[in-house]
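[job 4471] stage=fold_predict status=RUNNING
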Amino acid sequence: MTKQQKIEIIDSLTSEFKDSLAIVVCDYKGLTHKELESLRTEAKANNTKVQVAKNTLVTVAVKNAELGDIELNGTNIFLWSEDQISACKVADKFATANKEKFEIKSGIIEGNIADIATVNAFAKLPSREELLGMLAATWMAPVANFTIGLDALRKKKEEDVA
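[job 4471] inference complete, writing C-alpha cells
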C-alpha cells in the first residue's frame, strides 16, 4: 500500500468517524467471506458502515476525528453509524449468531471510549423508530380509550331504547 493510499484511507475514515456517533470495534478472526458478506448486508440494511482497515490507520483517523485514543490490536473490523444504536445492534446481533468467530472488543460512543458492556447496553435499547412508535401509542391511548368509552355508551343507550 502506497503512502498516498494510506492518506486517502485515513482522510476517508476521519470524515466518516466525525459524522458518526458510534464506532464498534470487533474481532472477526475465522469468519468466512460469505459470513462477512452477510454482516455487510445486515449493516447496510441498518444504515451502518463496515470496513476492515489497518489498526494504525484507524488509530490515526480516530485521533484526527478528535475521538480520543483507542488501543487496537489483532484482527479488527469496524462498524459505525450516524446514531448510537444501529452499529451496536448490528454488532451484537452478529456476535450472538457467530459466537466463536466474531467478538465485540470495544467502541467509541458519542466521543467516549466504550467497553463491551456499554456497547451491549446500547444494543439493547430500542431504535429511533421503535421509540417513535411507543410515543405515538402513548399519545393515542387517551383517544382510543375515549372512543371505546363512547362506543360503550352508545351501545348502552341503544339497549335502553330497545
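[job 4471] summary: Helices lie at 3-19, 33-45, 55-64, 86-97, 116-124, 128-161.
[job 4471] exit 0
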